[in-house]
Design a protein that fits this description.
The active site is at 98, 101. One of its GO terms (biological process) is D-xylose metabolic process. Belongs to the xylose isomerase family. It catalyses: alpha-D-xylose = alpha-D-xylulofuranose. The chain has helices at 37-41, 47-52, 73-90, 99-102, 109-126, 156-175, 198-219, 243-252, 265-270, 275-285, 311-323, 345-372, 374-382, 389-397, 400-410, 421-429; strands at 31-32, 35-36, 43-46, 94-98, 132-137, 180-183, 189-190, 224-227, 237-238, 259-264, 288-292, 332-334. It has two domains: 31-372, TIM Barrel (Alpha-Beta Barrel); 383-429, no CATH class. α3 (73-90) runs parallel beside α5, α6 runs parallel beside α7 and α10 (275-285) packs parallel to α11 (311-323). The chain contains 16 helices and twelve strands. The protein is α/β, with parallel strands linked by helices.
């Protein structure tokens, strides 16, 4: 018997529907800017929060009771059955997983690998009629061996175990036709500088990523290698702090053409940024890859991973994604989890339905803003002075002495011009 018995596939019923398990705004076949909505959004359901997380928090343990909770291969197979049932009900085109989400922990690396390969065999069968893999990754943070990091661990044996694990996970992702592979450095950082050689750890992290990139090319994996920025939690300071920090790191070690970024809304907020800032910066740097769509509780100081419900925020995020040409190999992964009081199978479905509807509304608002052109016209007008021949000559040809002489000669004395922020904010509110 399926965990989701009695729940029928979710369909689009339109904005007037009162059905909590129906889409009001997400119609996968609706054409937006010349492309089907499903192809724009490229939704993925994550394996970890939905099927591996037990509902605990720092002050209390498990609240969820799922029939697949356990540490045997039979439990892993039951979990896969439930997962693919949910993917089918939601009609999502993709899913994502860590190795530790889908297979039990073995006694050693060999048993871990055998367990993962057995589940990959099962996934191959289930994926014939189901979703594709947006990305795979390795969990290099939960097991106690990684308490001081994986690639940045002071113990070379931990580095080796982590590297071997990533090889198996990248191989599995390649075998399943995954479109990306993510490196999330959950403990690649430090708790205190008293026992940390930061320069050495950064060098080791770069060498680790170089080896991943090399293996990608060796096996012919054509997907994108992604890093996911996050500033802290669980470590005090993580080396993949935000988009700017990640890009600086990649640039320093000559990896900027090999690795792009998977940007999460909740992590952006923890870093003191907005989601659209991180996306826009990644686009400007040529480093944008994919997104994890969730939100944080702004009254909490940690990563709460809630499903999105703020259409204006989501609209601005998709505005910058569409402006940059949309997703390539990336997509919209719901790295979001139920609240620990939401116990029922229907809650898992309803949470994703609501999140997908919010994204659909945001996407349509973003497309409408781009097609109307008001924001882009305002940008063009604001920077119009730089299109003149004199301005371009100054920027590219003149020295400080040349510029100073011209300012003195011509009596340049500029007056400030309004940025019109409030008017632009009002303009956005017309669409959301």
């Amino acid at each position: 018997m399926s965990y989701f018995d009695g729940i029928t596939p979710v369909t689009f019923e339109g904005p007037d529907s009162n059905n909590p398990l129906a889409f009001r705004h997400y119609d996968p076949d609706e054409v937006v800017m010349g492309k089907r909505m499903e192809e724009h959004l490229r939704f993925a359901v994550c394996y970890w929060h939905n099927f591996a997380w037990e509902g605990g928090d720092p002050f209390g343990g498990r609240t969820f009771e799922r029939p697949w909770f356990g540490d045997t291969m039979d439990h892993a197979r039951a979990k896969a059955d439930a997962a693919f049932d949910m993917f089918r009900i939601l009609g999502v085109p993709y899913f994502c997983f860590h190795d530790a989400d889908v297979r039990p922990e073995g006694a050693d690396f060999a048993e871990n690998t055998a367990n993962l390969e057995a589940i990959v065999d099962l996934f191959e069968e289930k994926m014939k009629d189901g979703p594709k893999l947006l990305w795979g990754t390795a969990n290099l943070f939960s097991h106690r061996r990684y308490m001081a990091g994986a690639a940045t661990n002071p113990d070379p044996d931990v580095f080796a175990f982590a590297a071997a694990t990533v090889k198996t996970c990248l191989d599995a992702t390649h075998r399943l036709g995954g479109e990306n592979y993510v490196l999330w450095g959950g403990r690649e950082g430090y708790e205190t500088l008293l026992n940390t050689d930061m320069g050495r750890e950064l060098d080791h992290l770069a060498k680790f990523i170089e080896k991943v990139v090399d293996h990608k090319h060796r096996i012919g994996f054509e997907g994108t290698i992604l890093i996911e920025p996050k500033p802290q939690e669980p470590t005090k300071h993580q080396y993949d702090y935000d988009v700017a920090t990640c890009y600086g790191f990649l640039k320093r070690y000559g990896l900027e053409n090999e690795v792009k970024l998977n940007i999460e809304q909740g992590h952006a907020i923890l870093a003191g940024h907005s989601f659209e800032h991180e996306i826009a910066l990644a686009q400007a740097l040529g480093a944008f890859g994919s997104i994890d769509m969730n939100r944080n509780d702004y009254q909490s100081g940690w990563d709460t991973d809630q499903f999105p419900n703020n259409v204006p925020e989501v609209a601005l995020a998709y505005y910058h994604i569409l402006k940059g040409g949309g997703f390539g190999t990336g997509g919209t992964n719901f790295d979001a989890k139920l609240r620990r009081q939401s116990l029922d199978p229907e809650d898992l479905i309803a949470a994703h339905v609501g999140g997908m509807d919010v994204c659909a509304r945001g996407l349509k608002a973003a497309a409408a803003m781009l097609e109307e052109g008001g924001l882009e016209a305002a940008l063009t007008d604001r920077y119009a002075g730089w299109e003149g021949a004199d301005a371009k000559h100054m920027l590219h040809e003149e020295s400080l002495e040349d510029i100073a002489a011209r300012v003195a000669r011509d009596g340049v004395n500029p007056s400030p011009v309004s940025g019109r922020q409030e008017r632009l904010e009002n303009h956005v509110n017309r669409f959301v």
